[in-house]
Amino acid sequence: xxxxxxxxxTKAIHGGYRSDPTTKAVAVPIYNSTAYEFNSxxxxxxxxxxxxxxxxxxxxxxxxxxxxxxxxxxxDGGVAALSTASGHSAVxxxxxxxxxxxxxxxxxxxxxxxxxxxxxxxxKLMGIEVRFAGTDTPEDFAKLTDEKTKCYFxxxxxxxxxxxxxxxxxxxxxxxxxxPLIVDNTCSPIICDxxxxxxxxxxxxxxxxxxxxxxxLGGIIVDSGNFNWENHKERFPLLNSPDPSYHDAIWxxxxxxxxxxxxxxxxxxxxxxxxxxxxxxxxxxxxxxQGMQTLSLRINKHCENALEVAKxxxxxxxxxxxxxxxxxxxxxxxxxxxxxxGGYGGLVGFVIDGDIEAGKRFINNLNMLYHVVNIGDTRSLxxxxxxxxxxxxxxxxxxxxxxxxxxxxxxxxxxxxxxIIADIKQALEKV
Length: 431
Ligand code: PLP
Hints:
The protein is an alpha/beta fold. It has 17 helices and twelve strands.
């Protein structure tokens, strides 16, 4: 039996798995099988009727992915999880699982550029409106809410602005309105306990800190099990009324058979994953399981190094502005402190005193830091969002999002701090 613990360090290593039941392998095996044999015709029928849980076909679940899902469920203190082929599909499914044509959600406007595009363009084409709150305050979220609103959405530590999302306050407002809060916790696994603060669903790009080594792409949706879908039957028909695409299953009723509030994840797996197919590959699930074993050590080191880099940049004459939650002041600092309990994250933003050419000189002169559009890797990374991740946004949206031409985002790795600072220092000298 897997060891149970209340501590994230232990959960991330032992959650959901002890050893392989047939071989006794201690490392989680990669089950690279597309399909799984049924014991009998009756057994197959029971699996399809959800009277018994088991492996059927990898598009809707597989043993390696299941262990990753169980481990993340335990780590976050939820009831169930669904892994997906990318963080982006996790974000998309988390919303599509509640919305149909004519519905809307209310979201923070501080979002990863890809999510901004999904929300403001692609979901719109599907008939789902995303209303962006003016500010991350309960009042601004409430103002945009009506009977067609299905959830609130925000990113805990949104890059590039790194203004921490007030999970507690927005969750309180969401619950007052009878809505769940979905939080993208990609940049703050372990250091933000989003469910303890009131979030109902957490989504992650596992590609980042969870995998941690820049070697696999994937995502995960974790359900806290705290939102009572049945208390809001009319608001959530997709979970509370017969689903013609699964012989009229009512997901909240199906969940009762499992004695857990897992209707949301059941539908996400059995409808969205079945029909849209953004399934995580078992090899990638293995990379995330490996990554999780050192996640608590790594995230602490990322935070420790990032704080040192932020302090160094704050004193540098060529740096106009440094953005790091530990350096925030007033209300922003208060929110950062109550939301990020275990450190302020591994991302540091800064603006250089110079034009776009000066910015290019900084990037081109880095020796150790990689110039890539990724975050959460063991290696330190540098990105110039204006010319890369946020290039597809209009200039007005870009500036509104805090992305000026001189803005850089660093994802600070776990190398020795002296080497990280030395590289940044010598590149700044050439600006
Ligand atoms: N959410 C956040 C906060 C991200 O930073 C990213 C990617 O950078 C995503 C979601 C999308 O994840 P993926 O690239 O794994 O699809």
